[in-house]
Design goal:
351 residues, alpha/beta, seven-stranded mixed β-sheet, six-stranded parallel β-sheet, 11 helices, globular
């Protein structure tokens, strides 16, 4: 079968690989759509990061580069392994793309997303959504009912957003500032809006500002190149500041803005994966007693994310801005998102 394989920095190849074999406790999935994630772009430009480097196999997958990419994907169950319950051939599904050990202190405490050996399917091995088929342990497979398969490819990043919002402690009626309206920022705003939170989005790029408005996820959109974002947030909140803020850009200036814009005793959640170390003005943190919280991926969030879509609280259609064949992954997918990101939000690939 065809698969997109990461060999090294700026070296992704569409190759023929053996079709994965069904095992006990697993299901085989015919992949329908796979999203290109910001993490994939970081791997392409700066990696290997999550991809195990040659000679350094991942402790759970046993794999090293080259590996098949793709962790935001949807598909249809085509085969059921021995001992699998609750899934049937023909089910449309998404995958929570984890490797975890189930043995470390974090796993034993139920925090499997903080597993000491944690890895991601589609980054650390195990096949990936940028291939025709994949075999996955049944525990990670979530039925999606009648959600269209292209929209369902966004359930994984929506789960990232859901977990970040849960980490923030925000409640209905609060005011939230989202720094950056790329896919994760937009989906974070969508979850907030679905909860009844007033959402303020800060973004430079025209297409992404327009998407924040046209999708209906932002009550206010601010351009930091044209206005003082913390001052505008104070105006919009009657001089109080945002209750919570979400750093979704991986840019130091955005993090600084989030710290300035939250109210005293507010919460700032860092959602983005950073390509380089950040600096934090600790005086801002101290003088306002701000809680700065990290968040990684998701833990028991997929079912809730699916429910948000099924209940109509989040509409995923507006965020899909491109669809490509696997053969066009780099030229039309990666290149668009790296060099023409002002024209795109979420690009899907159909293996």
């Amino acid at each position: 079968m065809k698969a997109a394989r990461f060999h090294g920095r700026k070296d992704i190849r569409i190759e023929d690989v053996p079709e994965p074999e069904l095992r006990d406790g697993t299901v085989k999935i015919d992949v329908a759509w796979c999203g290109i994630c910001g993490t994939d772009l970081h791997e392409y430009l700066e990696g290997p990061i999550f991809v195990p480097a040659p000679g350094h196999a991942h402790p759970l997958s046993g794999e090293e580069a080259p590996v098949t990419l793709g962790h935001e994907f949807s598909g249809t169950v085509s085969e059921i392994g021995e001992g699998v319950m609750g899934l049937a051939k023909g089910d449309n599904v998404v995958v929570e793309p984890y490797f975890v050990c189930d043995e470390c202190d974090s796993c034993q405490a139920g925090n499997y997303h903080l597993c000491r050996k944690m890895g991601f399917i589609g980054l650390s091995g195990g096949g990936g959504g940028l291939s025709e088929k994949i075999v996955v342990d049944a525990r990670w497979v979530h039925p999606i009912g009648d959600i269209p398969l292209d929209e369902a490819a966004l359930i994984e990043p929506l789960s990232v957003a859901h977990h970040a919002v849960a980490r923030s402690g925000v409640t209905a009626g609060d005011v939230a500032l989202v720094g950056g309206s790329g896919p994760i920022g937009l989906l974070t705003a969508a979850v907030l809006k679905g909860m009844g939170v007033t959402t303020i989005v800060s973004e430079l790029t025209l297409a992404r500002k327009e998407k924040a408005v046209s999708s209906g996820v932002a009550d206010h959109v601010l351009d930091p190149s044209k206005e003082d974002v913390p001052a505008r947030v104070l105006e919009l909140t009657g001089g109080t500041g945002a209750d919570v803020a979400f750093e979704c850009a991986g840019v130091n200036a955005v993090l600084d803005t989030m710290l300035d814009a939250v109210r005293p005793a507010g919460v700032v959640v860092n959602v983005s994966i950073w390509g380089a170390p950040a600096t934090v003005d600790m005086q801002k943190l101290v003088l306002k007693e701000i809680d700065l919280r990290g968040t990684i991926a998701y833990v028991r969030d997929h079912a809730a994310a699916i429910k948000l879509v099924q209940e109509g609280k989040v509409d995923l259609k507006p965020f899909i801005t491109g669809r490509n064949a696997l053969e066009d992954l780099v030229e039309q997918g990666f290149d668009t998102l790296i060099n023409h990101k002002e024209t795109a939000v979420k690009v899907l690939v159909h293996p």
